Amino acid sequence: MRKPLLLLSVCATHAFAQSPVSTNPQQTALPSTEAAVNVTSAIQPMLLSGSDRSFVVLDPEATALLNDNVTDYLRMDASVNLQSRAGNGVQADLSIRGTTFEQSLVLLNGFRINDPETGHLNLDIPIPLEAISRVDVLHGSGSTFFGSDAIGGAINLITARPSRTSVTAKAGFGNYGSEEQHLQATYAASRFAGELAGSRDTSDGFMVDRGYHSNALSSETWFDLRPHPSSQSAPKDAWTTDLLFAASDRPYGANQFYGAYDSWERAKGWFASIQQQLGARTIGQFAYRRHSDLFVLLNDNPQYYRNNHLDGAWEGALRRTDDVRHDLSISYGLEADGDSIHSSNLGLHARNEEAGYVSVAYHPQGRFTAIAGAREEGLSGGRSVFSPSLAAGFSLTKTLRLRASAGHGFRLPTYTDLYYSDPASIGNPALKPETSWSYEGGLDWTPGGRYTFSATGFRLQQKNSIDYSKYTLAAPWQATNINDLNLTGAESSLHIRLPATQTLQLRYTAVQAAPPPPGLISEYAYNYAAQDANLLYTASFWKQWIAQTELGVIQRTGHTAYPLWDLSIARSSGRIKPYLRLMNLSGTGYEEIVGVRMQGRTVMGGLAYSWTRN
Questions:
Q1: What domain range is 528 assigned to?
Q2: Where is the TonB-dependent receptor-like beta-barrel domain (predicted)?
Q3: Are 309 and 345 in contact (CB under 8 A)?
Q4: Cα–Cα separations (whole angstroms), residue 240 to 159, 236, 282, 299
Q5: C-alpha distance from residue 489 to each of 102, 476, 510 (Å)
Q6: β-pair type (465-470, 306-325)
Q7: Distance from the CA of 477 to the CA of which of 115, 178, 388, 584 falls in 20 to 30 A?
């Protein structure tokens, strides 16, 4: 079943290094390879055109009514594979470039929100989609900048200070008893701004015990301790305080999630952060995350078997960036973080880490750019991990650029990896941390303002990878370290700006792993998306409507390829905006996780109201 996807890959491929992916059909031009794409995060300002890394920038605000959750946008990146267990991204596993669901890092404004209990909950995002201004996706190792977990890549969900006062509300209904109600209110003044966002998504489910409730609420406030500088060269937010509080509550039926049982699960938590800029070049940060996970094996007999997990995590950092000269900058900082868990199954545990990092970027006006970084992270128990990285790029012409990078990655085992125990799965307290080296090389071609093409080849070499495996079907899954789990692949993309505010994006990613040891039965590590092709077409018409259609074809190792086709349309101007979303129009019967059926054709329609103060 590889031939259809390989044919599609001739024109559909993905890597978007140097140029962001935009879902806005009204963009005027695509940047050249010499254009600087300043992708900032709370971790540190990263001039990714200078770092020459493969990345994607997704813009939820451009198509706000055409998608309903973060996973919808992440599926637009063919190097990101989502494995959901229900609609609306309920308990979705995240994989980048064929790595396991534990090997990608999720950040919120640069703060880690990966769950220390299990990576199955990494996408239990505490804020509503309406509060997210941009999604940055880094392909390849990011441990130099972000620490543990960023072996396959990192995803940073970024909020933004509002520039106007507005209110937006929407309500919709669909099949399977689905409902959605979302609200966003913003206020903007000269030295103060605030945003309140809330979302409620529910469904009765397409089968017994597969309904869900997904609720999220966030409040973010920005205020300036000093008046804005009058100098145009000084940053306007040099002394800005940013306070964010968010909470989520998601109970859902878990039928088939972990076997042929009518199970039930509830994940809820809260997140709070403060960021304080200390002048133009220094920032102090602190965040705390609390999360609980209640699992009931038999919904009609909850006392038969249940697990209750409560975990917490904190993170603090002090960061600074200096310009040594006009073409040379240095970023450096100190970090400390810790997490803990109190669980009926995993026990009571805690650990702390501390780290220092430095990154030097050389970005002259000429053809060559380079960035080198290093991170030393101290772990509980006296161990430490050193994670260097190096990236460079060279412009052959004004429209053609070559790039290459290498970086070290690592991941600490989750508490489930270490301590979980039931008749079907057994953890391993003796697990070693995962380590890896990631290598990539690629090119970016921008022959004109209407086209952008990128291609990247990559290699991931891993040591002490963690997987649940066994050698006989009757044996329980056992968490073990495995070696030589090496991944080789390619990703490419073609972005075309068509006439009349239309865009066409074609992307393709292929990954192949070294074969497993003879007789080994793997639960996760060798069950990856070998090929992923994606076509996204977006258009504005009649000056007040926007439409989007997306066709994805995915082939997982050992399985037949399957297509997924979505279509959305919404009014883009005026106070009253009707919208309609049609998901899985092909009616494909498929499983993103083996044994967990996904729903068929899905319809959601409704109205949105927006008001903006002039």
A1: 3-612
A2: 242-590
A3: yes
A4: 15, 9, 11, 48
A5: 19, 32, 5
A6: unpaired
A7: 115
Instruction: Specify burial of residue 607 (Cβ count, 10 A radius: 0-12, 13-18, 19+).
Output: middle
Mean pLDDT (10-residue bins), the chain, 614 residues: 38 35 39 37 40 86 90 94 88 95 96 96 96 94 94 95 96 96 96 96 94 97 77 59 97 90 95 94 96 95 94 97 92 96 97 96 88 95 94 93 96 98 95 97 90 96 96 94 94 92 95 90 93 96 93 93 96 95 94 91 97 91
How many other C-beta atoms are found inside a 10 Å radius of the C-beta of residue 504? 17
**How far is the CA of 481 from the CAs of 36, 93, 416, 465, 466, in angstroms?**
41, 21, 14, 5, 5
Composition of the chain by helix, strand, coil, percent to 5: 5, 55, 40
Q: What is the spatial distance between Cα 438 and Cα 151, in angstroms, rounded to a whole number?
A: 8
**Tokens representing 34?**
């010499």
User: In the structure encoding, which two tokens stand for residue 458, read together?
Assistant: 């990559």
> Residue 336: beta bridge partners?
316, 354
CATH (domain of 599): 2.40.170.20
Give the count of beta carbons closer than 10 Å to the beta carbon of residue 275: 20
Distance CA 424, CA 121 (A): 20
Q: Which two three-digit tokens encode residue 473?
A: 């079907």
Q: Which two tokens stand for residue 325?
A: 């000269």
Residue with tokens 């998306």: 529
CB-based contact 52:39 (threshold 8 Å): no
Tell me the β-bridge partners of 407.
Answer: 389, 438
Say if CB 117 and CB 310 are below 8 A apart. no
Strand, coil or helix: 220: strand
Q: Is the torsion defined by CA of 515, 520, 521, 523 positive or negative? A: negative
Cα 481 to Cα 581: distance, rounded to the nearest angstrom? 43
Report the C-alpha gap between 208 and 212 in whole angstroms. 11
Contact 561, 1 (CB under 8 A): yes
Local structure of 2: helix, strand or coil: coil
**Dist. CA 112–CA 145, nearest whole Å:** 12
- Could you please report the per-residue DSSP string of 528-543? -EEEEEEEEEEEEETT
H helices, E strands: number in the chain: 5, 35
The 8 Å CB, 24+ separation contacts for 587-592 are 588/562, 588/563, 588/564, 590/562, 590/564, 592/82, 592/83, 592/84, 592/85
In the block, residue with structure tokens 């605000």: 61
- How many domains is the chain partitioned into structurally? 1
DSSP letter (8 states) at residue 485? -
Strand partners, 411: 434
**Residues whose CB falls within 8 Å of the CB of residue 56, separated by 6 or more in sequence, listed in order:** 14, 16, 20, 21, 76, 77, 79, 136, 137, 139
- DSSP 8-state class, residue 87: G
* Residue 66 and residue 548 in contact, taking contact as beta carbons nearer than 8 Å: yes
Neighbours of 265 (CB within 10 A): 24
In the block, tokens 């490419």 appear at: 492
Paired sense of beta strands 212-224 and 240-253, if any: antiparallel
β-sheet bridge partners, residue 166: 186, 612
